[in-house]
Amino acid sequence: MIVAMQDSASEDQIQQVIDRLVQFGFEVHRSTGAHQTVLGGVGVPRDFDTGVVEIMPGVQEVHRITSPYKLAGRSFRPEGTVVKFANGIEIGGRKIVVMAGPCSVESREQLFTVSDLIARAGARVLRGGAFKPRSSPYSFKDSA
């Protein structure tokens, strides 16, 4: 369930809604943006009446969500998610970040060669999969 609080909702009103949801058995995830606080209630009882929350002071609207990945959706986190790395690179912000690398890292030399090539091509993040030896070279599954 998504509970969008009014822009003018006080901290006390937000906490009252959180406390009420916890009483009903929800796990509550709070996201406070620049203008609005959104509460994500996980573990919605099937017979839960959203009207109980809709009438609480400070609540703008309540939506029952049955789709997967509700905590990653824009309705729960309208400002988006930005992941910041120690080297200053941000993924999820305004700039496009290219991430590249081998599907399977097989040696140190391979990794350094690939990292040099992808850096010259403009990639900012090196990624690599774990080497998984196969019992047969024919066990690779093609998606075609």
Folded structure, characterized:
- It is a single chain.
- With 144 residues, the protein is of the alpha+beta class.
- The two termini are 39 Å apart.
- The chain is elongated and about 60 Å long.
- The protein is built from three helices and eight strands, in the order βαββαββββαβ.
- The chain has helices at 11-23, 51-54, 108-120; strands at residues 2-5, 27-32, 37-42, 59-63, 83-84, 90-91, 99-100, 125-126.
- The strands form three sheets. It has a four-stranded antiparallel β-sheet with strand order 2-3-1-4. It has a two-stranded antiparallel ribbon with strand order 5-6. It has a two-stranded parallel ribbon with strand order 7-8.
Please outline the helices and strands.
Layout: E1 2-5, H1 11-23, E2 27-32, E3 37-42, H2 51-54, E4 59-63, E5 83-84, E6 90-91, E7 99-100, H3 108-120, E8 125-126
Parallel strand pairs: 7-8
Antiparallel strand pairs: 1-3, 1-4, 2-3, 5-6
